Amino acid sequence: MNSSSPAPPRTYFAATGLPTGYTSVAVDVGGVLYYDEPFDIAWIQGTYERTRRTEPGLTVPSFLEHLKGFYRGEPGTFLSQPPARDSWLDVRQRWTSLVQPIPGAADAIQALAQHLPVCVVANQPPECHTALHEMGIAQRVDLVAIDTVVGLSKPDPKFFRWAFDQLGWTAKDVLVIGDRPDHDAAPAHELGCQPALIQPDDCWQGPTDLDPRIEDTYRAIRKDLRTLRSRPAQHASWHLDSLADITP
Fold first, then answer.
1. Sign of torsion over alpha carbons 29, 33, 37, 38
2. The domain 24-36+100-243: what is its CATH number?
3. I need a surface site. Which of 78, 151, 186, 197 has the fewest CB within 10 A?
4. pLDDT value at position 8?
5. What three-state secondary structure class fits 204?
C-alpha cells in the first residue's frame, strides 16, 4: 500500500475473539454492573410530579417535549429547575432500593476477582459504594473509584490514571470494561489499555405507576443516545456480551 494512502477506518468493536494478555481489570458500573435507567426514570417521574404541584396545568405531552429538550441540551426545561434538583436528592436517598443489578454481573466479578486484580472506575454518586457493597462487589475488588469522591470524571483519562496509580497498575496491562465508547473506550485507548464494551440490554423495569408515555419516550431517547455516543469514539475495542465472557 502506498504510504500516502489513507488508513482504513477503525471501528469501536472488534470483529471476532476475546481480549488476551491483560493482568488486571477495571470495570464501569452503569450498564455493566447495574442498570442506569431506573435512577433516571425515577428522577424524571419525580420531576414531573413535583412540577405539577406548581404547574397544575402541565400535561404529559408538554412534559415530554421538555424531556426531549433536556436530553438535546436545550436550556430552560423543567428538568433543569428546582423540582428536578429536589427529585434527584430523593433518588439519591433511595439509591440502593432503586438498584436493578444486571443479571450475572455480581457473580462474574466475584469469580474474576479470585484470579485477577479488579477495580471499579465510574461516574456515580457516592451512594454507589453502598450499593456495590450490598451487591457483594465492593468487598471483592481492590478499589472503588467514584468520580464524585475522587474529583475526576470520565472521559478524562486522568481519572483512570489516578485509579491505576493507587493500585500500582501499568495501563497497558489493564482491560477496561464499560458500555460507552466515548466515556470508556476512548480514554482507555488513549492510555494504552485494552478497551472492551458491553452493549447493555433493555431489561430494566420502570415503576408500576409510571405513565407509559413517559417510559416509551425515555426508552426511545436512550436508544438514540447510544447511537450518538458511539460515533465520536472510533477506537478499536473488544465486544463482550457480558462480564461472563471473560470469567474464568
1. negative
2. 3.40.50.1000
3. 151
4. 34
5. coil
